[in-house]
Amino acid sequence: MTTTRRGFLDSLAGTALAVGTTAATPAALAALALPPREFVGTDEGAAQGAWDTRWPARLTGRVKTVFDVPEVESGYGVWRASIWARQYEAVMAIPARDTSTALVIRHNAIILAMQQGFWDRYGIGKARAVTHPVTGAPTERNPALLGAADGVEPAQVAFALPEFIKRGGIALACDLALQDLVALIQEADKVSSAVATQQARDWLVPGVILQPSGVFAVLRAQQEGALYIRAS
Questions:
Q1: Are strands 209-211 and 227-230 parallel, antiparallel or unpaired?
Q2: Can you give the pTM of this predicted structure?
Q3: In what order do the strands lie in the sheet with 63-69?
Q4: Contact predicate 200/178, CB 8 Å
């Protein structure tokens, strides 16, 4: 375990007790030429043929933040999006109901927005050399989805992406980055681009809202007064 990882885990324990730019890959650049797409992935889904742009209305309260997660980094960026509100409550006496968070998953980190079944089917953990956030060992598990059976403490389970969404966190995914996964599916399964695109969207973690790009999502959050944090 590195000093950085140990220090991060120590901060997690203390918290529990107390309470960019997108890579211009060929696939991503090609997506820029496409018109807005139909995608209804959440209860607040967009109208047919349009992006979901209603989520900024959920950025409310005294402290609004946007956590920019471009790298996998054992899923720490996702965890950090939950930690700060607990610290504000413990130190600043600002309750969770007075804070809100947008989490933008983009660039290399797009795999964190995908369900475990996607990771298993396409060998993502090994292919991307992903490491476990606690042990530092190679893992086949999506570190943003870890539960009690994966060797993390109960307080850390609460930082997982599904729990973040359940608490009202706004999870956003970059469509430009998703195009790399579309290409992966197309090559592995020998399917058309349209089929691979739909499959990639279906593999998104339930509740994640697809956006034209991660940069777009970050800028929209900042327009609503959210404080920017580079989380990974």
A1: unpaired
A2: 0.81
A3: 209-211, 170-174, 99-105, 63-69, 227-230
A4: yes
pLDDT given for residue 85 in this prediction: 94
Question: Which amino acid is it at 27?
Answer: A
Q: Which pair of structure tokens corresponds to residue 67?
A: 């956590």
**Those residues with Cβ within 8 angstroms of residue 211's Cβ, 6 or more apart along the chain or in another chain:** 51, 52, 104, 172, 173, 174, 175, 217, 220
Domain ranges for the chain, please list them: 3-230
Distances (CA, A) of 72 to 54, 176, 195: 27, 16, 26
Q: Give the contacts of 30 (CB within 8 A, at least 6 positions apart).
A: 179
- Identify residue 36 by its one-letter amino acid code: P
The tens digit of pLDDT for each residue in 22-72 reads: 344 444 444 444 333 333 344 333 333 489 999 999 999 999 999 999 999
The CA–CA distances, whole Å, from 173 to 75, 79, 94, 218 equal: 14, 16, 28, 11
By the 8 A CB rule, do 177 and 28 touch? Answer: yes
Domain 3-230 in CATH 3.40.1260.10: yes
In the chain, where does DSSP find H-type helix?
3-18, 26-31, 76-92, 116-122, 124-127, 154-157, 161-166, 175-189, 193-202, 214-223
Higher pLDDT among residues 219 and 154, named by residue: 219
Q: Is 158 helix (H, G, I), strand (E, B) or coil?
A: coil
d(CA 70, CA 106): 5
